[in-house]
Amino acid sequence: MIFLLSLLVLCRACSTEVAPRRLQTGTIELGKVTLEGTDEHGNGISRTVNFSQELSDPVVVCMVATHNDLRSVICRIKSITSSGFDLILEELHKPEESGNHSQEEVTYMAVDLSNLPHNVQAGNIELTEIKQFQDINFGSSYSAEPCFFASIQTYNSQKSPLVVIKKVENDYFRIGLDEYYDNYLSGDVSALIGWIAIPKGSYNFGFHAEFDRTGYAVNHNKSFYTTNYMIREMGVLGTMISFTGGDDGYVRGYSSDNNNEVAFHIEEDQLNNNDREHSIQEEVSWVAFSTYNCFFIEGVCQDFCPTGFPEDLECQKSDTLIFHLTLDVIQDTVTYQGISVTTGEDEFFYPEYKLTDPRAAFGRGYYFTGTSHMTFSSGFALAPSFVIAAWIKPDSVTGSQTLFSKVASGDELIDFAINSGKPVLKLLLANGKEFTVYSDHSVKIESWNLVYFKGYIDATYGVTLGVNLDQASTNSIYKSWYYDTQLNYQVTIGTNQLSSQKYFKGFLYELKIYNGGYPAGDLMSSNCGECDYCPQPDNCIVLCSLSEFWNGSACEPCEEYCENGCVTLGTCNLCEDKLCYRCTSFIGSCTECTTNASMTSGICECDSGYYPDVDECKVCIQEQISAYYSKNYLNLTIESSERIQESKCTEVFSSAAISSFGQGHECLFSFYKVTVVLGDNFAALDSLVLRSLYSNNTVCGFYENQIQVQIEKPHVPKPVAQLETPTTVLKCQNLIATSKSYQEDLLYKWTVEGNSALSKYNLDFSSASQIQINSNDLTEGLVSITMEVKNILGEVVSTTNSVQVSESLIVNIDGSEFQVKRPDSLSISVPVSTCEESVSLEYFWKVTSISNNLTAFEEDSFWASQKSPRHLYIGAYSLPGLSEVEFQVEVKDTLYSFKGEASFTVKVLPSVPKLFVDTADGNHGVSQVLRINTDRSYDPDGFQLLFEWNCTSGTSSCSKLISNTSSTLCEVLPNLMQPQVTYAFTVKALKSFDPSIYTTTTIRITATQETVPQVKFYQQNLDGNIANPQKAVRILALFEANYRFLWSKSKGGSLVYDSAIDSPNLVIREGSLDPGDTYTIQVEVDSYPFFWTFYVNKPPGPGTFTVTPSKGSELSTVFKFQASNWTDPENHIPLTYSFGVLSETQTLSLSSKNTSAFLYSKLPYLGKNLKAYVEVYDSYATKSGLEFPIQVELSENFQEQEVVEDFKSQLANSSFLDIPQHTNSALQATINRELISDHNSSYYQEVIDLTVGAAKDYIDSFNQVSTQTASNVVGILKSCSLNPRVNTPANLQKFQSVVKKLADTIDPFEITDQLTEEFLEVCENNLAETNPNEKTLTLGIVNDNINIFNSKIFKEMKNTEVKNFLKEKIQMSLGSYNAQSLNSKNVSVDTASVQFSNNISSTLLSTQYGVSVSLIPVSAENYSSILSVDLIGQTTSKSPIKLRIPISNPSQDLECQHLYQSIWETKDCKLTNHQDTFAECECKDPSVFSVAFSSAVDTFTDNNFDETVDLSNLQKVKSDTLGIYFCGVEIFLYVVMLMYSCKLDYDKEETPKARSNSKRATNTELNENYIVDTSNRTVVETPINTARDYSIPKIKDLIQTFKEKHEVLSIFYLHDKDKPRVVRSTFLATKLLGDMYLIGLFYRGESDSEDSEFWATVTEYSWRDFWVLVFSNVIMLVVFLVLKSSFKLRKRYSQSQCKKSLVTTLGLVVSWVMMAYFCWSIVVFSAVFEKKVNYKWIFNSGIDYFSEVLLFSFLRILITLGFKKLFSEEE
Description:
Elements lengths: L20 E2 L5 E8 L11 E4 L7 E7 L8 E6 L5 E8 L12 E9 L8 E7 L5 E5 L9 E6 L9 E7 L3 E7 L12 E8 L2 E4 L3 E6 L9 E4 L3 E2 L3 E6 L9 E5 L6 E7 L16 E6 L5 E3 L2 E3 L18 E6 L6 E4 L2 E5 L15 E2 L5 E4 L4 E3 L9 E9 L5 E9 L2 E9 L2 E7 L5 E5 L10 E9 L3 E7 L2 E6 L13 E5 L11 E11 L32 E3 L4 E3 L22 E4 L6 E4 L3 E4 L2 E4 L3 E4 L2 E4 L5 E5 L5 E6 L8 H4 L2 H6 L5 E5 L2 E5 L9 E5 L14 E7 L10 E2 L3 E3 L4 E5 L7 E7 L9 E4 L3 E4 L7 E10 L5 E11 L3 E2 L5 E5 L4 E4 L2 E2 L7 E11 L7 H6 L6 E4 L9 E10 L4 E12 L11 E5 L4 E4 L11 E9 L2 E2 L11 E4 L9 E10 L2 E15 L7 E5 ...
Parallel strand pairs: 1-14, 17-23, 48-53, 55-61, 63-69, 70-76, 78-83, 85-91
Antiparallel strand pairs: 2-7, 3-6, 4-7, 5-6, 8-13, 9-12, 10-13, 11-12, 14-15, 15-21, 16-20, 18-21, 19-20, 22-23, 24-39, 25-26, 26-29, 27-28, 28-39, 29-38, 30-35, 30-39, 31-32, 31-38, 32-33, 33-34, 35-36, 36-37, 40-41, 42-43, 44-45, 46-47, 48-49, 49-51, 50-51, 52-53, 54-56, 56-59, 57-58, 57-60, ...
Helix pairs in contact: 4-5, 4-6, 5-6, 5-7, 6-7, 6-8, 7-8, 7-9, 8-10, 9-10, 11-18, 13-16, 13-19, 16-18, 16-19, 16-20, 18-19, 18-20
């Protein structure tokens, strides 16, 4: 911004505070501009600065005034002319670091040497050499050292020399050139230096300037200097005028947040190094200047005089009160001293209030409704110090409510608001900083409050906020002030123009604005009498609400219809004169009378022929009276055009009329209406006579005593008698008769005839619309039932039905005609009723007729496809198109020779052709070939389609442009279309056998001269441009070039995108479209728009849904589900139905989608609060539904075995469509019955196996698996998994086989988000209530299932589409991304996240990938949540991923781990960071991840001890349990060893005794069989070798020691009376069994699969297995040492044979008890462990036995010998 000001006129004085010096004529300019910095090569970007007027001989100096870029830089001056000059930046740092310097602000000063101001000297000096200084004398000496500025005026090269000023005295200065470092400059170094000198002080040049010198005080540190005045957008320019250091330097400025402060420092170049510090203190000349003409107010240099300050040379304050708004008027515009405020959005006010208008209220100002405001239409400007005060009565303290606001150019200058009841002030200061002040004091709602604020200048800017008598002051941190504006602003009361959410709601009585420091506390008084605070003593403001008025002493309510208040009762008129229509105040001042009234002497009077009625003038004509009965004849209403006087019934109506009103009637009078509430037994009249309705009308002069009035009667249709009964009923069944007369307020009379017992069912008129005849009262024959129906007018009609009571069987088929479309399927059940408990039924089906068929009926294959004789299944395409087929079924009971038959017709409806086009509305280049393809269209009935194309342009045909109008392809060759013309191409897809059935669509193409992107579109869920709102809509763009896409909605209601709007693919979230709305979606392809318009289908319309009976017993009562009167608003038929039951814990699906609106089903017990439901689908699969409450009670005769047998029979004989019903019922009656009763299922595994097989058969039975079919399968899995004990790994693998089959057969498009959520609920059930960290196999299977499902979903997902699912136990995100976008991609789920490597795309083979991230939250202490990551697509190698996994209260060391073959492994995972709530890991390849907590401690604390004391585990022990065999073998070996040890010990007790007193060398005696060692009372049985090799005695001694000390060898070779062989054999067996027990103790019970192989399991041996082995050995070693110590005790009793025997016996008993416990535990472990755990356990035990016998025993002996030798040598 350049401010160019001149001294050609005499400068005016600024103020009386400190008057800046006035100068004589002359020209000086100061200004600042922004330079764009440098380009990438470091070259400065030049900018031209123009003088405000021509300077014939200019001198210019400049300085860089900001630090936007910290690199060293100076400003250079170029091309100085009389009209201006150029500025450019020069970088002063290393070339390799140069370039792209940021914008900087540069200040400059210019003078004209031919017209210098008084006392200003200037000139130019030509210098040609470096380091040559000259002393230059001033033309005249100054009285003191002046301020001095200099800059180079020429631009001889891109490298500038440095201007050095060594001294500035009052009479001369010393100046020269230097270079930044030696040899920096080469060639011509001459330069013209311009200089300016001016005495220190403040000057008024038309703008304000202050000149000063710093003394030797400035170095590289930022230096601050204060100006005399605060200046907005202050400029600063400086020159270094000393040279005391060895390094050169120059002055560079800083921007400052304070308005009375300048900042600069000495900067050095960075040409040789990056050090730019100048530590020596130098002197600087500086000038601070304003960029505008100044008015000096309160120490501020401001560019205008505020309101209340006269705009003269002095600008002195004349009046502090500049605005006073007192709202005691009824005016749209209120004016005070030329400042006007208007209400609302226009000039209209009372009585034509707009939504934005406040409401005038007598004695309490204006009421702001929460949408109303007032706007200042004429302006004012505030001084730096000002006060704004208001009297308000807020309705509430909720949210933020603006009282006063001033905004300009999008900035909030002032926002005075109430936030949560406390005043808040926000100001924008002159330095651009926002200053917000919050009050600690609250206003009172429903009370009057004075709120105010005062702004003032202190050391910094301060604000005082006040509420009534409480106030507090706050100062800003900035030395600035509130700078108001005079231009382009808006001032509002009651709202903030920048926020529509901050409306004030309540009363505003008064607003005052002061310029200056008026004491705000004087605006109020607390001596008010009946109120807390008031504007003046004893002058309280009225406290009434808007719906009340002040009667002089209290508030009274207005009439209910007075929405905008009132001033008196009976009228809403606010004017004193009630016939006044518009007034400007509450007393007098009427400006307009009401209709049919005129003003006379200031008073409104009714015109001739009219009379006053409160606030109206009514015409003097006969009153208008009407009378009518209400629709239901509850009331009789009399309405009058004239006001009716308050009276009584007996005074208005005749006695005859009153008697017709009925018993208990009541009369209600209200102004213009009389309402008679009719009583019982009323009589409807045609007319009546009214008396004394009105008071005497003196104006008009008439009075009517009796008025005859006709009564209008509402139409009451004659009753229609519709009776529903079965045509035949069994003698053992109850007979139910139900009225189907759906009129209101009907009464019913029943008459039953047939036998004498039926007379008790005769009922007189009542509301009973149904009767039930007990089976005990029925006899074979006809029963006649008559129903009479009476409406409220007493009209009666009747109907009679006859019912045959039979003892045979009945075939009940609901309906005689069924409809189905050829691609759909239909199942028709044949319910048979009989009184016999045991029957044997045979079904005989046949086709009795077929008509209208287009093709032959393949009847043999049709009957071959039937799977159940009790159902007729009509599969897709099994009947000929358009045919009507009549079927007959005959049912025979072979046991009782009963039979029955029924017939019905199946009508095959034609399907509408499916029309799909690949082109959207949009532009097309005339030089391009236009191709619109419909080759994806088809006839669902399987017949050929015909196509018809036509083209129109306006009203003209253009079909000749189309190459072939009967092809699937509409082709228009280049240059046939005209530019800027829109063509409508319409295509019809017609059925070949009936062209009247067709689908049509129109594509609108606008031709253009440009080449338009060639894009084709593929859509999903847009069937004939009709969308199902319950499925996602997808539009996929197909293209060859690299286009930019941008999707948007140009028409229609709300929607939610599930894909990025800049992706080629659009996905609209299911459930986000509004049914019945039309949407237009626009996509811009390289800025060319294309449009796709579609209609959102409505679901079927509301019908009825009933279940009869509504209460019954489990698995015995047959419930009839019936949907009736359902229609589709768009006639998308046929409708199909699905039925089920909802409980508190589950949804039980009972049927697949079918055209039958009936279902018969027995129900299992499901607990309380049951609801049956129906889902009704139209032909676009859009559904709606209803629920119906039912009760199913527990049966006392429940037999689970019978349920299972029935289940088997149902699966064998029923239609596959009934599989969901039968499986869910069986599951609930067996397995899930445990959840709601004390039942314990004995057949749960058999039921599970049957269910899994049935679910697979159900999937296989469909040609195409729909969403509803898949939902039924998922529902079956959910029922299977509700009981936690069912969720074993074996069963989960069976469930997985169902998931795989479902995923293999379903179209991905059919997988809705709702279906996915239902599937995740199954997965949650599979995880049950256990910690998934401990159920690794379960976790692996569940994760595999999720990945299987997600892989299928991904196939239809479009790029950038993301689906998020948040369940209680599983949270999942599934997204589709292209390979490049996965680099460094971060995917978050709740607090967990996954980040891929920055080069993962190099390992990917495909272009599109799915990323599935699932989080299983775990809150247990010392366990982490589980994070599953799956990358759907092919990869070449592993790529690291970073994980953030939530953890809970970690108290141990952490390890990252992943799931590998059902085992947690730490390989390829490392912990990188952790906090209290999360751990960060880096792992290779997607997997299932968690965090392990100190595996060694976990191994010890996590054990199966509870299993060993749980006697219920006996049930799990089977004959093939591995532990039985293992313990049996070990006990057998122990018994054999025990017997052998006993024999050896006995034999050796007879050997010779060794001499006890012999020396060590003679302690061994020879025998023919052994050596006797008497030194330690042992006999070592070593056979004598007469040919001993004495050359290696040490080896022989070592072998002998092994025989003595080895735990197994010593049993055979060592005889020790203190440790007999029996004891040692027992101890060894105890230890080995104990090791195996302890190893099993620390294994988890479930982590494997049933088909695990032994050696495959061995290869998975992990560190945890090793820790198990270590812990087991450590614990058993302690136990073993305790046992061995007992025989050390035995030695103490060596003299007592009795005590020695006791110790031995006790040791053996303890060992045997331990062996028994170990064997029991081993058997239990092998029963509860899965196969893989058993394998690991046995393998680890084998390692333990091998290492103990062949390794550790020998090592212990060698270590002991080593220690003994070591100690003997030391001795």
